[in-house]
């Protein structure tokens, strides 16, 4: 029996990569210094996995920004607009090209927009979407994968296992940038390059290669299934002397089981955390000699593995195919897990004993192999931890469960329909056409972060801290007034994170000091941990919203995070349904909404940035999820009076297949990210005849480039050609927390100018 890991966090235990990347982008360190930081992280990761006794240890799972972008660079899939940088893509030039594709490029007379970014399946990790043309060519452009394997082999020997995104999933996760072809059609041109890559790795000494094919667990068309069959049969016919492992995760193979087990590969990985029931069908169909990697340790959550449950699955596989064909593994890459629980010293010891981070999950993989082979030494402590969690009064609160059980349809329904509410809002707020606003946060500068750090360390009193935050809030309000923004925000300077801030004030949550995970690029988040029943003991935002509202005569938005987003961006309980946990959070947010309304806040934004992200990967499961997710939002907003305007915001969302559910949320105003896709997402709203108001983002806040007034005005004109102009708002794509003030001010000045231009040039129906 072997053990393997599919991938390991690459940010470093103290977020060294984040800091080095940002220093490199700012010109404070050079490429050699950046590369040294990366080398140290990789070597530490390999040593950690070696010490845990893992048999197959991934390499090339490290990335400076994103593994899909790495693959695009490897394969030479470089959009034409980057041709000036491609021409000099050697040395520093390759990194300039790489980061330009991720972040945009605005210097040396060039103004290059970044590539589109979207969620990696149903996670909160973002990847850079490959762009394909009908005449797309592929070739090896980057040598990174070969360099990293050589380094890993020197340390790990035959345990080193190169990892790359598989050819078919790479195509399916991309996007056609012109009409007349389907990206799956490119497989015949792509496969020869994969053959060349695999053979080069074999020549360097690789004995195992992992190809990630998460799309094997999705609904596939006939053509897409044929692409998988073609790709792997061609690879098998031209590659020998190296063992290929195809990894799937996040869902069951289901109707793709026969396809997957019959691919001409040496091992198949399946996710038995998300879909334990698929094991029976896989074992019933598995051909002789195919090894099976069992993903039994949860790579996406922080809870200690239940050894007895995992051993039931392992034993079933061993009985069917023999121990020598079984590989024990995490369910997916540990990229989605915090790094090391040993760094957490302040967590309640009882709850800490229920938890495991990436480093501890490696030990769990090894322990499961040990127990499966007859050494039960690790089992008793694990059984005790599981029993402690099941019985703990810290987890279960009868009052919370009873309140959820008493929810009715009336709790999820506004008093009047949107047209009635809209008229009340127009009279109450008297906003111009194309009203301008922002999504909520303003730049969290070093000064703001230092204030928070000094408060935690005791260098500042609460009064001193709050006085400084008040002044930052006043400054932001004055600046918005001078600029001419119509609906203001207070800037959220008091908030560390849009989920963490609320979790800190809700019962049932705990927080880590070093539990960081990568969201995209250098953006890392520290998700809260939901360990018990959730309730709201006191007001969370009323103090800061009312303070801000008192500083201006303009409308001030109250800013909240919605229940589904809090769920999605937390490490959630695995001992009750996600619906149950979401309803608990929804009732807590409802209480806060009503408190804001009572305090005089007339516009309240409940961000549901992650509602699309939570969509099940299989279409057959989506209706049930959407029913409770939409209802949870409506519970949050359902108690307010008609005169109160409810906004929501959603990130990176392809809405076409769920647009009727977005409408069913019945938010008065929805703001969405559309600038990178050039308003493409609005097609779904137009075809559906979306009835409520909408703010399509007119500039990309994930890039440091400053869009021109002309550029944003053109996007507004495009939006007005698709949707009624009277329903359109003007706003950035997302919050501005991660940006710097100079670029933020310049971009918002251009945005307000674009809105004023739209009022002069675009007719607005009555």
UniProtKB/TrEMBL annotation:
Active site: 702 (proton donor)
GO MF terms held by the record: 5-methyltetrahydropteroyltriglutamate-homocysteine S-methyltransferase activity; zinc ion binding
Binding, 5-methyltetrahydropteroyltri-L-glutamate: 18, 119, 124, 523-524, 569, 613
Chain positions recorded as Zn(2+) 1 binding sites: 649, 651, 673, 734
Record domain Cobalamin-independent methionine synthase MetE N-terminal: where: 3-320
Record-linked Pfam families: Meth_synt_1, Meth_synt_2
Protein keywords: Amino-acid biosynthesis, Coiled coil, Metal-binding, Methionine biosynthesis, Methyltransferase, Repeat, Transferase, Zinc
InterPro entries reported for this sequence: Cbl-indep_Met_Synth_N (IPR013215), Cobalamin-indep_Met_synthase (IPR006276), Met_Synth_C/arc (IPR002629), UROD/MetE-like_sf (IPR038071)
Entry function: Catalyzes the transfer of a methyl group from 5-methyltetrahydrofolate to homocysteine resulting in methionine formation.
PANTHER family xref list: 5-METHYLTETRAHYDROPTEROYLTRIGLUTAMATE--HOMOCYSTEINE METHYLTRANSFERASE
Protein name: 5-methyltetrahydropteroyltriglutamate--homocysteine methyltransferase
